[in-house]
Amino acid sequence: MKTSRREFIKQAGVFGLVLSFPDWHTRRSGKLLRVLIIGDSISVGYTPHVKEMMKDEAYVEHPVENCQGTKFGLQKIDKWIGTEPWDVIHFNFGLHDLKHVDPVTRVNSEKAEDPQQSNIKEYKENLEVIVKKLKTSGAKLIWATTTPYPDKPSGPYRNAADVLEYNKVALKIMKKNRIPVNDLYSYILPDMSAMQLPNNVHFKKEGSEALARKVVAAIKEQVAKGS
User: Fold this and answer.
1) Where is the SGNH hydrolase-type esterase domain positioned along the sequence (predicted)?
2) Which end of the chain is less congested by CB atoms within 10 angstroms, N or C?
C-alpha cells in the first residue's frame, strides 16, 4: 500500500513541519551552536527530533522546502546557506537523484527503463559543485550517506542496489574534500524492517528518532574536535 507524503509526515510525528518552518535567516540564536540540516524528506522526518535533542545546545534549522536532489540543490544552495554564519552544516542528496523519471515530462516514473533524475555522472558533477559552495560557508561540514530502502519500493522506480553506487560516488568526493561522513545507511540497515514504513523509502517515527540520535552524535563529535 502506498503511503502519501501527508501520511508519512503524520507518522513521522512532524505533521505541518514543511509549512511551519520559520524564516531561519531572520532569527537569532544567541550563543547557541548554529546547525543547518540540508536534505530530502528523510531529513524532514528527523530534523524535529534533532531540534528537541539539542534544544539547550543548538539552534537547528532545515530549509523551508524538501531539498530533493542535486539538480534542485544547485538552484537553491546559495539561498539555503544564506548570509548568516553556520557552525555546522549536515547535508545529504541521493534519494531523488536515483529515482526514475519520465524522459519528456521529468515527472516521477514507475518504469525501470526510464532514466534517473540524475545519472551517476550527473550526480557526481552536481555534488562536487554543491560541496564547493558549502565549503565557502566556513561551517564544519558533515555528509550523511543516503539511507537504504527495500527493492522497488512504492512510488517512483528505485532499485535498491543503486543507493550503494551513489553512496560510493559521494564518499569519494567527501574523502577528497576531507569532509567527515555520518553513515546513516550502515547505521539503520540492520533495523530497516522495523524502522521503515512498509515497502517505502520513509521511516516510522521511531526510525526518524533513531536517525536523529545518530545525527546529533555526529554533530557533537565534530564540534568536540574543534577547528
Assistant:
1) 38-209
2) C
